[in-house]
Amino acid sequence: MNSVRGKGVVKKVFVSIVLIGLAMFALAGLALKFMDFRIGPPPLAPPKQRIIEPDTGHDITDAPPEMHLKIGIANYSDEGLGKVFINNVWGGGMQPYASSNGRTCCVTLPRSWHPGLKVAVAYRTSSMFLKDPQSYVEKDVLVAPYEPFIDGFIYFFYFPGDQVRVVATPYSPGYPGFAYDIDFGRGHGDPAKIKRFLEATAGKEAE
């Protein structure tokens, strides 16, 4: 009889020990979960999306996320431009029907374009100066879409009717690789090309 009772006690003790062990194991697992503890090596980070420069085919994935672009001005009007600023960076002025590239540095833009990207421009035309030497037009202009590139320009385009466009590009207007078919240089201004350019960039201004 005593032997049976002894076995019962041993069984109860054994069951109690097992239950206590399971409880401690569960508590330890819960604690490790809160501590974000992982057994083994950490999971691999997702692969970085590769960025390829379209014109050269170069892999620019590891290039800095921002570009510092020289300011170019293309004036397609009979108004002189006294001063042009992009994001408070002075870009100089421009005679009527004349253009320049890379006159001053620099305006910073993200290497990858995104919807809603815009810059603040300020400028004064010759007729504005004659009326009020301190006057400026200030507006926010959406930057036309662009593919990632290493280095280049940000162009301020001015057209009759106070139409403004801003284009970030590795190439100057008129050169192979420039995204739009529009002339560049003194005496430029093919009406058909200007019309197509303005239509292609329509809606790129944001007051």
UniProtKB/TrEMBL annotation:
InterPro entries in alphabetical order: DUF3304 (IPR021733)
Keywords, comma-separated and alphabetical: Membrane, Transmembrane, Transmembrane helix
Transmembrane segments: 13-32
Record bears the keyword Transmembrane: yes
UniProt cross-references to Pfam families, sorted A to Z: DUF3304 (PF11745)
Protein name: DUF3304 domain-containing protein
Species of origin: Stenotrophomonas beteli
